[in-house]
Amino acid sequence: MKNDELATSKDINLAAVDLDYEGFRKLASNPHLSVHERIGFPVEYREKFEEAIFKDICEKLPSLTGTNKVIVDIGPGCANLPRMLIELCERNGHRLILVDSEEMLDQLPNASHVSKVSGFFPNNIEAVRSAANGPIDAILSYSVLQYLFVEANPFHVVDVVVDLLAEGGEILFGDIPNASKRRRFFLSEAGIRFHREFTGRDDLPPLPSTSGGQGLIDDAVLLGLISRVHSLGCDAYLVPQPSSLPMANRRDDLLVRKP
Ligand SMILES: C[S@@+](CC[C@H](N)C(=O)[O-])C[C@H]1O[C@@H](n2cnc3c(N)ncnc32)[C@H](O)[C@@H]1O
Asked: What is the pLDDT of residue 1?
């Protein structure tokens, strides 16, 4: 599908579209789509799960439930997670910096505690730094690392975000599709059962070929990023999502803590 069709078509098979930053800009401008579809998710993967996802994010980033912190969200999109974050930050006296395309950010409410930095991250890192105007307590980037992996250098992304962190600061790269985890799951009895219930068929789940990993994050990438975080003097952990979340069986969360 061409980028222009992403901006205008009423009928988009999101599972079949290879999204990138420009593609998201187009989706964001498509008046026929729900807020979930504008960030690339079929409605059923998000609509009923946003409260549970937000609760999980708050448990993984304890700064959010503190007061008077500086918070950054890289790739907030335009659905309900950033709206919940804007409200929580207002209640808790945090300053919040949102980093995404202008098309996404324009759809989110403006407020005195919110700054919007538009453009492709990390090319706009200096604008983020100046909006923060000091060290950052928590950085959230939920369901975004897979795009940064393809379009930016993920090691550079880790370098620059760790550099922004305050002492005791934390980062959550959440909802990362991990091709190795997906493979492990679909080779298991539980994965085969899941596939059969989901498709209504009696066959085995298709497994990616060994050459099919191009552009996909896998264990090797995540372990490499963890190693990089360690070399920058921070702790890093690969943590699971609650099993009630729709993609918990094939996604991981990467948590970074600065001592
Ligand atoms: C799948 S959506 C996730 C949105 C939101 N975090 C959520 O989970 O509801 C990915 C978002 O990342 C943004 N994005 C992708 N690459 C980006 C980049 N290099 N710089 C800034 N934003 C980016 C897209 O515009 C999109 O809003």
From this structure: 63
Strand partners, 57: none
Q: What are the chain's domains?
A: 3-45 (no CATH), 50-178+217-257 (3.40.50.150)
Distance between CA atoms of residues 216 and 153, nearest Å: 13
Q: What is the pTM assigned to this prediction? A: 0.96
**Angle, alpha carbons 217-100-173 (nearest 5°):** 35
pLDDT at position 212 is 65
Is the beta carbon of 54 within 6 A of some atom in ligand 1? no
99 within ligand 1 shell (Cβ under 6 A): yes
Whole-number Å distance, alpha carbon 34 to ligand 1 midpoint, is: 16
- Please report the atom of ligand 1 found closest to the CA of residue 24: 25
Mean pLDDT of the region 47-68: 97
H helix runs in 14-79, sequence order: 21-28, 35-38, 50-60
For ligand 1, say whether the CB of 121 is within 6 Å of any of its atoms: yes
Residue % of the chain over a pLDDT of 90: 87
3-state SS string for 155-215: HHHHHHHHHHEEEEEEEEEEEEECHHHHHHHHHCHHHHHHHHHHHCCCCCCCCCCHHHHCC
The answer to whether 139 and 185 are in contact (CB under 8 A) is no
Pairwise CA distance, residues 110 & 60, whole Å: 26
Q: Which amino acid, residue 249?
A: N
